[in-house]
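I am still getting used to backbone structure tokens and would like to learn alongside you. Would you supply a protein for us yourself, any chain you care to pick? Start from the sequence, derive the backbone structure tokens from it, and show both lines together. Go ahead whenever you are ready, and we will take it from there.
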Amino acid sequence: MPTPARTRTENDYRHHTPVHVVWEITLACNLKCQHCGSRAGKPRHDELTTQECLDVVDQLAKLGTREITLIGGEAFLRRDWMEIVKAIRNHHIYCAIQTGALNFTQEKLEEAIEAGLQGIGVSIDGLPELHDRLRGVPGSYQMAIDTLRRAKDAGLNRSVNTQIGPETIPMLSQLMDQIIDAGAQQWQIQLTVAMGNAVDNDHIILQPYQLFELMPLLARLFDEALERGLTMVPGNNVGYFGPYEHKFRSIGNSTSHYNGCTAGQTAIGLEADGTVKGCPSLPTVGYAGGNIRDLSLEDIWNTSEEIHFGRLRSIDDLWGFCRTCYYADVCRGGCTWTSHSLLGKPGNNPYCHHRVLELEKQGLREKIRKVKDAAQSPFAVGEFELIQEPIPGRATSSEYDWEKMPRQRIAQPVINSSELTTVEDGNHLEGRVPPKLEMCKNCNQFIWNHEEICPHCQTDVKEANARYEEDKKRWEYLMQKIEAIISKNPLNS
């Protein structure tokens, strides 16, 4: 299987290469989604002209971008969107579109492929009744499924994006059956975030404690999907660590794990009016690094403090549970979009499986409650309070006081994310290469490489590794014997 264009290398982190760009080319949309963070519907009044868009493509190519995903609103509602696709492909950059697929006709699909479109992501948020209700248009589910089937027939790379809320969980298994049947190759899942329309409809936002139910289900579906030719791709706000991390971010490589928010480090988000952010989902206020009508994209990328927040973030910027967490140095608070939208600032993310499990040991759980609505502008956030409470029917062993707790990772220091160095020309900071964790071979959870006793299962790490290697050799030996027997006695029936 070829390496995806968006796969990051150490050099990408060191040199801050904007590998993957998600570009809102219009805010026009023909759906009315209850969870839309950008409150899409009408075009922005000052969206970039065709020539300005083509200039942006040239600038992204110069910066080393390898993949561009076009979004909206609904990207294909912009009349010149196929000219943008052509320009992207002329620079040999991988080009895909994310779509709700309402009225995405066969003619439009064929024209897009002729222009050079290589991949399509179709948003499907549940079985027909739920999907149509969330998307606000009857029949939108069937149009999405039909588009996926036609994309398969045309040979495009195909993915499905699913937002997960409380009503989605019971139907995820059946939904997986549906999208496999329709031809999906990848299934990207993410949690609905408290932004824009979702704040108005906060009943569709998952409670943090519901990860206790969701994550084991996702782990089971992950394995089933692989056996059936579908790759589940957890989004940046699905995680983190816990007993299933080695599955979710380790396709073909069990040593891979979550490396923290990539906004402004190896990712760019663009709004249709030329506003540049480190991530397309982040609020415009506080995260807009500039506009390409005022500065070159290169200048914004290299000099904007609003873009650089992810490059400069250290454990000192974390708070609450995340400040105390064993994984603080590598995770750095998880998805910025999720935590900022919910609590008004990044660095403390309750949507974390490791966190849910640690609280569960104390007989505690967390839930959210809205206290303030969001403004009616794109990417607006409201205000939520985070409530810690006893798990119903469970006795609590203690009350956590995050600010007074010592760091749970109490062994020798590792790479600190605030340790940045200048490159040779002295003009820019060299990027932080995320630290790499090892995996405990007894419990399959990630640990720091200096650990002698696994903090999760209390096993001697060296002994567990030795047992694993012995079992691995024994398994390989048995497989060789079986293959030898089969080769000597093939079945002729």
